[in-house]
Write a structure and sequence with these properties.
Strand content: 15-25%
Number of strands: 8
Order of helices and strands: HEEEEEEEEHHHHHH
Number of helices: 7
Radius of gyration: 20 Å
Mean pLDDT: 88
Structural class: alpha+beta
Low-confidence stretches: 8-21
Largest sheet: 8 strands, antiparallel, barrel
Length: about 240
């Protein structure tokens, strides 16, 4: 084998290892899901990723993932968790998404649709609860520029979730078939209707928020225990621009 070939093989091996490493969770990484901040404490045998967490009440939690390949994980049982978190079952897929400057975990249910997200953050739990979309923070967040989460969305009635979901498309000028949505967004100064809905391209934040809102809309109201809690005063415009209260 020639020297040049060996050099190329070493180069590609290094590139592969760097790429694989960049797609995996590291010890010390912290992820916030809207009500709890999870910190990776250790990675056992190179595959078992163990987290501990603290929620908005100061209660301790535990989370375990198994690394499958590159950015793919599965949710594993933990010593302190009899039931799986995040509205899913143990064994469901967890993906580490790194795209367009966004770093987060997405939890998929058994049907492979998005159920939950956890945002990578360098901050502590108090800052996360006050500055990010959360269960308790009195903050209205933009549906197009802020990554939302299920605890935050669980506070809103479904009539408003529907508006939030369509707001994502309205920001891109979608023409709506439903008369009430078309009338609502046509009354907004920023709404500029397009001639072709098929040309609309959503960002990773918008795609993820859309899937999260749809997941929350699918949840029966009698199971939405946070409905109506900690709600600030807001207008429909606040969802677009993320006004703070």
């Amino acid at each position: 084998m020639g020297l040049n070939v060996k050099i190329l093989m070493v180069f590609f091996a290094i590139m592969f290892l760097n790429n694989a490493s960049s797609q995996t969770i590291k010890v010390g990484n912290k992820f916030f899901d809207g009500e709890c901040l999870y910190t990776c404490q250790e990675i056992r045998m190179g595959k078992i990723v163990y987290f501990t967490g603290v929620d908005y009440n100061g209660d301790w939690r535990e989370l375990t993932l198994k690394h499958k390949s590159k950015n793919e994980y599965t949710l594993q049982p933990s010593y302190q968790a009899e039931d799986a978190p995040f509205n899913v079952t143990f064994g469901c897929s967890v993906r580490y998404i790194r795209q367009d400057g966004m770093y987060f975990l997405e939890v998929l249910n058994k049907n492979k649709t998005l159920e939950w997200v956890l945002l990578l953050t360098p901050d502590d739990v108090d800052y996360c609860l006050s500055a990010y979309p959360s269960l308790v923070g009195n903050r209205v967040c933009s549906v197009t520029t802020s990554l939302l989460n299920r605890p935050y969305l669980s506070r809103f009635p479904k009539s408003e979730l529907r508006i939030m979901r369509n707001m994502i498309y309205a920001r891109h000028g979608r023409r709506f078939e439903s008369e009430d949505m078309q009338a609502l967004f046509s009354s907004m100064e920023w709404y500029k209707p397009n001639n072709d809905n098929k040309k609309i391209k959503l960002s990773i934040i918008e795609k993820t928020n859309l899937a999260l809102i749809m997941a929350e809309e699918a949840m029966p109201d009698d199971l939405r225990k946070n409905l109506g809690q900690y709600m600030p005063e807001y207008s429909i415009e606040d969802f677009m621009f993320g006004t703070n209260y």
